[in-house]
Amino acid sequence: MAVKEFKFSGTSRVGQPVQGTVFAANRNAATRKVNALAERHGFRTREILQRQMYRYKVKHPNGTIVEGEQKAFSQDELAGALRKMGLTVIKIQRPLFEYQSKPPQQDMIMFVRLSANLLKEKLPFDEVLNLLVNDVSSKSLKQVIRDLNADLKGGMEAQQAFMKHQHMLGKFTAYMLGIASRSGNMSEIYDATARFLERQNEFKKSVKSAMVTPAITLAVLIAALVWYVWSIFPKTAGLFADFDIELPPLTQKTLAFSAWMDQNYLWILGLFVLVIGGLVAFFRTQKGQFWLHRNLIRIPVIGGLLHKLNIEIFCRVFAVLYSGSGDNITVIKIAAEACGNSYMEHRIKTITVPMMVAQGADLVRAMEASGVFTSMALARFRSGSETGNVRNAARQMADYYENETTLKLRSTVEMIQTVVALIITIGIMGLTIISSELALIQPSAEDLRKKN
């Protein structure tokens, strides 16, 4: 959910001005937060302003007309800032529609990867942001970088500044980049985050290649079969229907199916659209996503790969954060959120974490109780726990599953393509058999005289 910034102002009991900012999902939530602060600290709220996007048109001292976009809490605030820059304000207005899509994954990867490379060259982070804001093609990511630069220059803590944009950057990416500034080695955290995003993007492309192309092929095949049976075949076989002869059984059933389709195609189409729309809407809900993720890892062949990918991401995030944070519970929660499976995240947060906090269980026993980790992952964590090097064990497990899923995915794609080719062959054979029956129909001379 998008996090929005609100500025409030008011007066204290002794008449002193009070102002500050809060972050909330909407104005009602912001109002509740401000009211709670007012009650706690004893001040009266005067106004609450949301930071929004404005479009401006200004005239440069050299006569050039410049147009652009900038976020501000009010038109007056933006106008004042532009005038201080020596610009003549011509027009400031809110856009008719304010919608920011998430930055493309490739732009995100480029931003994090280039940031890591520039940080390795010992460039100050504000210079890194100034360099990248001009090279990023995504307007939404460009605006995020501008906001980050402004917030950091304004004294906001890095983690708070990045988490403010978690709906655009992703929760894991925002958290990782946020803690990088206090980790002592920003370039390492950025490099690890870039590697994670690159790996995630590569796997998603591979899975789409393995699933989407065969799915489209099968959909086209089914559509072709239905069209042939429903429209083309009856026109050919119907020529014999007027003869008083017995048609072959497969031809009779095909013609009956075609007639049934003629009578019921409207409600069949409506039911199909309703079911697909309902499933899409359901899977977008939290409950639907939970159900989908729980059963996705149980699908034969591809489910095992997805499950190992989730564990790989968990282990990699755990390994990166484990050394930079003394709070292991927070590390486990962040790794669970980053793994990309809401079912695994729920099991880890509701079983593993409570067992460690309330019962004092060790990490391996608590992970085993969740039921979402493979026996190999548990054995590796157990070995690392016994040797006192859990971080290294997590990294080794992540590297192993990365190599395994990469190799197995190739063979899985080939297997799926083979299965799809087999299904296509069976479909063509079915059409051939149905069409061949027509050749067996031989009207007699008497049947032809009756027809005439």
Mean pLDDT: 82
Could you tell me how far the N terminus lies from the C terminus, measured between alpha carbons in angstroms? Answer: 74 Å
What is the H/E order?
A: EEHEEEHEHHHHHHHHHHHHHHHH
Structural class: mainly alpha
Q: Notable features of this structure?
A:
452 residues, 3-stranded antiparallel beta sheet, 10% strand, single chain, 18 helices
Itemize the secondary structure elements and their pairings.
Elements (H helix, E strand, L loop, with lengths): L3 E9 L4 E8 L2 H15 L1 E8 L1 E8 L5 E8 L2 H10 L3 E6 L11 H16 L4 H9 L5 H15 L4 H6 L2 H4 L1 H10 L5 H52 L11 H36 L1 H11 L5 H21 L5 H11 L3 H17 L4 H8 L4 H13 L2 H51 L4 H7 L1
Antiparallel strand pairs: 1-2, 1-3, 4-5, 4-6
Task: Please characterize this protein's 3D structure.
The chain has 452 residues and is mostly helical. The chain is built from 18 helices and 6 strands. The protein has helices spanning 27-41, 75-84, 105-120, 125-133, 139-153, 158-163, 166-169, 171-180, 186-237, 249-284, 286-296, 302-322, 328-338, 342-358, 363-370, 375-387, 390-440, 445-451; strands at 4-12, 17-24, 43-50, 52-59, 65-72, 88-93. The strands form 2 sheets. It has a 3-stranded antiparallel β-sheet with strand order 2-1-3, with helices on one face. The protein has a 3-stranded antiparallel β-sheet with strand order 5-4-6, covered by helices on one side. Helix 4 (125-133) runs antiparallel to helix 5 (139-153). It is globular. The relative contact order is 0.06. The mean pLDDT is 82.
